[in-house]
Amino acid sequence: xxxxxxxxxxxxxxxxxxxxxxxxxxxxxxxxxxxxxxxxxxxxxxxxxxxxxxxxxxxxxxxxxxxxxxxx
Length: 72
Known about the structure:
72 residues, mainly alpha, 4 helices, 61% helix
């Protein structure tokens, strides 16, 4: 019944809230796709007990091993 009264406007009435919600999600929520759990905690303001970059550097200096630079 509503479709016959307003025609294509019925589509716009349902599409516009979905589009605005999508835009709000892009602006408000941070992207966490490729982050570690520690990095996600820091984005949300939680305390981070382990900083991975610092620990990797410490392991390299302790063991004396250097990772070879390989270009593919």
